[in-house]
User: What shape does this take?
Amino acid sequence: MTPLCSQPRTGLNGPMGKQESSQPSLASLFMGFLRIGMSSFGGGLTAWVRREVVQRQGWLDDQQFLSGYALSQLVPGATNVNLAVFIGAQLRGPPGAAIAVAGLTALPLVLVLIAGAVYFNTSGMPGGRWLSTALGGMGSVAIGLSLGTGIRLARRNIRRLGPLCITAVVALSIGVFGLPLGYVLLVMMPLSLLLAWLTRPR
Amino acid sequence: MIQLLLQLALLFAGLSMLAFGGGAGVIPDIQRAVVDHYHWMTAHEFLDTFAISRAMPGPGSLIVVLIGQKAAGLPGAAVSFLAMFAPSCLIVYIVARIWHRAGRSPWRAVVERALAPVAVGLTFASGLALMRGTESGWLPYTVTIASTAAFAFTEINPIALLGAGAAALLLGGG
Assistant: This one.
């Protein structure tokens, strides 16, 4: 199979006039996702993916990242693993997708197996109370990481009232009122598509 | 043993294709199968396992690795991992390919502009939902608000902030 990136990469020059995204080697793709996997203690994985892929390496611009992120939510499976497949495939075809997933999951996988071995053999985690307090603190920071990334993305990508309303409704209905993601997307995706179609540049 | 591995593979491969919305949605189904149907774990063990997988870095769906490990050792862990991730990854790959093929077509531009506000909303939603789900208290909230501002407006290293958050709660007696 030809890698997805073998064709000239058209359509990458977003409205903000970004330069062509660079094409990383498989090794640097692996290292990038290894860093993401290592850093994502306490959740907030998506924020780490954006930080590495958009901010640090410049492999994708915000618009491409956001499309990949939304598409990753629309298909089944863990969002961030899906996002790794999407980004890896965009940059380096099938091997890129496999390498990105391997990088993302390698270290967490080893850590989970070690934790499992300890737990199943001692029936309990050592230093449990301290550990859970520390993890709670990291969790609070990880929530801030999600919200802070949202603010960054909104400031750069949401410039009109219509899209802003869609962002607000999605955020509040799922995040505050606890409506199921599937139903919210079922209503808000067509609305957003309609809005984008009506306001398309001609 | 072979039968056990086959059961793990079929269970998780099936759930992999149903895990809409990031995978957290199938946790109740996993619990029912693992605890009530196959008796690979007690309900208490399942909750502990869930907490461990949440505390570790990486996707929460790695809980299936722990279940496989408990049910059938390392081969069980490997089979569960592949069964949970391979089918959904294949679907995303196909979507990514179609997406890439669309190139500069007008419909892709429209879809791209429609996806952006939804994706930003989902980023906020995941943070807000986690805030609702975790225990409250002035210290965790303060830490969350401070780190939100730090991430949004400065280039601070998130690892340092994670360490600071852990230290704040340990010292604050949280």
The two ends of chain A are 36 Å apart (CA to CA).
